Amino acid sequence: MEELKIARIDVFQVDLPYRGGVYRLSGGREYKSFDATIVRITTQNEIASHALGVRAGIAEIAPKLIGLDPRRVDRVYDAMDAALVGHSHAKAAIDVACWDIFGKATGLPMPIIDSCPVTGPAETRQQVEAFCAEGYTGHSLKVGDDPTIDAERITAALADKKPGEFFIVDANGGMNLESALRMLRQLPPDLDFTLALRGEKPFLSNAELTYRYSSMSWPLAMNQSFKSSPDDAADGIGLKISKNGGLTKGRRQRDICVAAGLTVSVQEKARSEIALSAIVDLGQTIPERNQRTILDTRGVVSLTTADVDFEVVDGRISAPNTPGLGVRPRLDVLGDPVASYH
Fold first, then answer.
1. Do β-strands 33-43 and 47-51 pair in parallel, antiparallel, or remain unpaired?
2. What's the predicted TM-score (pTM) here?
3. d(C-alpha 150, C-alpha 27), whole Å
4. Catalytic residue among 142, 201, 243, 249
């Protein structure tokens, strides 16, 4: 194997505007844009760029990585863990940039899912219709306000559900378990969706959670509360790459889920073409029987940070059979680095 070493790490900051004006979540949270961190790793003879995570911690980690082989992702991760405890978001940015150098896509088509912010029932139904017109077959519905209104929102969103469409209902940590149960009890019994819990889960043990939902007919998925053990009371998970610290640790969680028979939806907090390249790269390694959907992050923001070669046909996305993760960052959009290490 030809010698390859990290020579330089550049960090970029860019604000990604939400294309719909204001992105609303439970609890009155509103976002007009998303603060993104882009990491570029330069080796002796090639450059790879990728986004994920935040800038916190990179200044402490980056100097310890100069001279390492970026293709030895586990060794790079060992060095990051030795340099700094925690700070998974910062490590994710560097880790995925290493995978961009190392990885080569296989081209497995995967179903994509959109993200519908909190709105009224009628507006939610219109959002789903618009996403369907763009080719999406999976939908993530944001809830977490009044249980009755949330139930009406879910019912409206699924009113025109077609065969093959998949719905996730996600409160983004803004709903307590009492509200979740009240919402579920107001729904028609034949609605087909998966309930995603995140910050709500720690209020109950696995045994209590299993008991509370034993009378419910809807599958239960864990989002960011799922970390490493397959014994959570869940039928599937939403695997967030940056929450796990990148692709290297994300694939470990993937293996645990596959062994436990759980379905996996690969997602990310970052909203960009660059984030999508990491999602596609990990998603294509999940066996089809365990693969639920992947989040297409491009539909959320209006600023294009990179050109990608991903093709969407009939609601399914395919990775290109080209070296790396199939992404070409637009350096004119990223501007000058806010920090550099070499």
1. antiparallel
2. 0.65
3. 13
4. 142
Q: Please, what are the domains in the chain?
A: 6-103+334-341 (3.30.390.10), 110-328 (3.20.20.120)
Residue pair 161/167 in contact by the 8 Å Cβ criterion? yes
Question: CA of 206: how far to CAs of 184, 212, 216, 332, in Å?
Answer: 19, 10, 16, 49
The two structure tokens encoding residue 300 = 């959320």
Of 152, 137, 115, 130, nearest to 25 by C-alpha is: 115
Catalytic hit among 64, 104, 201, 240 = 240
Residue 161 appears among annotated catalytic residues: no
Question: What are 263-303's pLDDT values in tens digits?
Answer: 888 888 767 888 888 888 888 778 888 888 888 877 778 88
With a CB cutoff of 8 Å and minimum separation 6, the contacts of 282 are 239, 241, 247, 250, 251, 254, 266
Q: Show the tokens assigned to 179.
A: 């509200």
Q: How far apart are CA 133 and CA 165, in angstroms?
A: 13
Q: Is 142 an active-site residue?
A: yes
β-bridge pairing 339-341 and 327-329? unpaired
What CA–CA distance (Å, rounded) separates 341 from 64? 10
